[in-house]
């Protein structure tokens, strides 16, 4: 993008200390609205030099260039002069940029709050912190950052504020409000915690436990079983299959103890034909791993069974 297309950059440079290039046409600097001083804090203001949109991650809000100048106490004449740039016709339309392949790490600062509901359910703050689990105060959601195998932040998933755990929302418009360019993201293209387990397997040869959701994976970690990943659903996509096969040849399944989980386990065992598959069979009446105590889960994981034996046990159970 040419300097002429970044038409609001000179205006922001007048007011924002320490302005530095971010991703695309976004810049980051110290927020003058609440008086940030370089060297005394981290920069929290994101501005878009092409559109004039801005957002302060520290709580000042966001908006267009008019709102920004008004909050700084500028005169109406100055605001009108600067705002006219937004309607200036360009000599040549800007080339549409491809979406970025990751999100900035600073975004996690917005959700840097402890999800007390999970702590009350028995999860330690240490486990939540190690897995970047946070809380969206604005929307009252527990947040789960999703990373690719290399550890790059590619998406945020928020747990909806409902009475049941398990209803999730992939953040898209929520991120656009922060003035960020959002990468193309689909849960089916990623496996949660894959990057952490890939790092672990470089020094330890272990099987990889596969569970359905975030909470089940966290409970494995709570039990001290860190070689666990989550599909973010009971179905394994072709993309997830490739990721798992690039990671290990020994898989232990522990999907939810319901019809969807049983069917998913059988389909995954057929999909991962090159891997050795075994199953942790949850006791009747236990729906998912976090319904067990950490000690019970550790004990159960010591005796996984073959997929055929798991199927036999499921078929012998009485119909609900």
CATH hierarchy: architecture of the largest domain: 3-Layer(aba) Sandwich
What is the count of distinct domains?
A: 3
Radius of gyration of CA atoms, rounded to a whole number = 24 Å
- Ranges where pLDDT stays below 50 over 5 or more residues in a row are none
N-to-C span? 62 Å
Oligomer: single chain
Beta-strand percent range: 15-25%
CATH class of the largest domain: Alpha Beta
Number of strands: 14
Global geometry: elongated
For the largest beta-sheet, the strand count, sense and barrel status come to: 5 strands, antiparallel
Order of helices and strands: HEEEEEHHHHEEEEHHEHEHEHEHEH
If you average the pLDDT, what whole number results?
88
Helix count, DSSP H or I runs of 4 or more residues: 12
Alpha-beta classification: alpha+beta
Helix content: 25-40%
Major sheet: order of its strands?
1-2-3-4-5
Q: How is the CATH topology of the largest domain named?
A: Dna Topoisomerase Vi A Subunit, Chain: A, domain 2
